[in-house]
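U., I forgot to send this yesterday:
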Amino acid sequence: MILLNDTFIVKYDDDLKSLLIIHPDEKLWPEPVIRIREETLATLDFLQASQFVGERIFLLIPQLRTRYEADLARLAAASDRDSAEE
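Result:
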């Protein structure tokens, strides 16, 4: 099952009080790929929320993952170092 894709549906669901990122082929992936709850969004200002959402979308799109592969590797290495120091 391939989750990564170049197209996703992004919508706010009033019933769930969540921002949903949905795979366009619901037969392949029937549940939202990402659900960002209102409680999470409430802790973020506009710039933080837009960065948070944008980062998640970028990670789902293969062409963008490839474009920023070096940056992602650098961030992962820094995160590993930070975890090891704790």
